[in-house]
Amino acid sequence: MRILICQFGNETNSFALGKTTWETLSPLGWVKGETVFERFEGTATYVGGAIRAMREAGVEPVPIDLSTKGGNFGAGPTMTMECASYAMDHITEQVKERLDSIDGVFFAVHGGGSADEAEDLEAYCFQRMRQVIGDLPMMSSLDAHANMSHEMVALSHGLFGIKTVPHIDCEAAGYLAANTLIATVRGEVKPRMVLCRLPLLIPATTGFTLSGAGKEILDHTRKYREEHGLLDVTFFFGFSATDVPCSSCSVLVVADGYEPKEEAWELANYVWERRDRFAGESLSCSEALDRAEKQIRQGYVVINEASDNPGGGAPGDGTHLLREMLRRDGKGYVMGPICDPEAAGLIHRDYHVGDRITIAVGGKTDPRAGEPVLLEDALIVNLSDGQLISAAPINRGVKMNYGKSVRLRKGNVDVILVSDRFQVYDDRTFLMTGCDLSQARVLGLKSMNHFKGYFQHTADAIVTADPPGTCPIDLKLYPYQRVNRPILPLDDESQIRFVPDWGKNQEA
Ligand SMILES: [Zn+2]
Q1: What distance in angstroms lies between residue 54's CA and the mean position of ligand 1's atoms?
Q2: Residue 473, in any domain of the structure
Q3: pTM confidence score
Q4: 106 CA distance to ligand 1 centroid (A)?
């Protein structure tokens, strides 16, 4: 048996400025098919999991060119149709060439993508694939932030989401999808899916599984799957910054040989009963720093500037937290990556370590994220090529590249500049510029949840700052136009009737 492996997608923040083009999505181009084993076999990624399942089952993996950001997916503004159709042209051409010799397709997608003329990007991608492969078995792993649609379900033989935020089970989802695909081709199982969407948007910052309602749902769905002998159960948090009709959280149940409607409805109600518990607290940078200072013990406290998270589609060059750290000039303050390729490139070209420089950094993309900050007479402490190998649970072992990077020091505050947008996953982003975190007291970084996979074990405490930006905790700040209404928390609960919507493919 031979199974084709492909990957494409992006998490779309409809409210981020600009467009996601092929150049911004994949600045380094495709990960060539012939390098996939070397790059991803044994890593904690979707593709790593899929390859492992195939090796164990004695199936030959057939990787083609992949589009991926650090093994996972990136995020950004709405994708241009040119980018979506170019990528699917490239993928389907390679599939066509191999069609006679493959028995199935493993297609890693995000699930929260949207393009100009393909609002539901994954439905578009699956459709394009179906035009080539017909009824050949195709299954996917998806992100927990997928906005699931009935169209996606109708076009796929099996969808398997990751269950955790921070995402620590990408490998497991890739493994399960590939394993179920192999069993289906062998005629050992007949997966049937039922999707139940909820009229609920969850802010990305409050939707996590380390504690609270998210953890309760994670524990309950795991137990429920085991007790009911289901192939899989995923609670998708959805991605609330995507302004499309299928934007919402949802429950997807996969059973062997029957439509698990009762199970999906029961689990969706379990989530619905917890709907009020995803509301979040919104702290300014000053309030967050006050709180952080009080919680420092032996090491450092992390402040995550969630509203400027590149992993949520924000520019990652926001200056609100940086400005407040500089104003306070606290000992051991470190501000993690501000994405500013212009400033980092100029310093690499014209300066050396030990030089002093006056330069404006950040604040060049979206006025909501703050003005550029002028660093006067700052010391250039370190120049880095921005390359690292991830140590975080989300993509451990994957090579990442921030591009030309710099660490500057202004007063007591260290500031890191980078040339490509990634959220922070672990300490490697700091180490790559020689920054010794054992000396740090307050660590600023841009991420909503994924950094916790590493920093929850190492930081004295974590405090979330929510200054103005592209990913606010208060969803009423977004000018939604396309989301299905009524929906919480945008509308009054009295307007909402929570009833099952099975979609056309599953009508009784
Ligand atoms: Zn995600």
Answers
A1: 25
A2: no
A3: 0.88
A4: 19
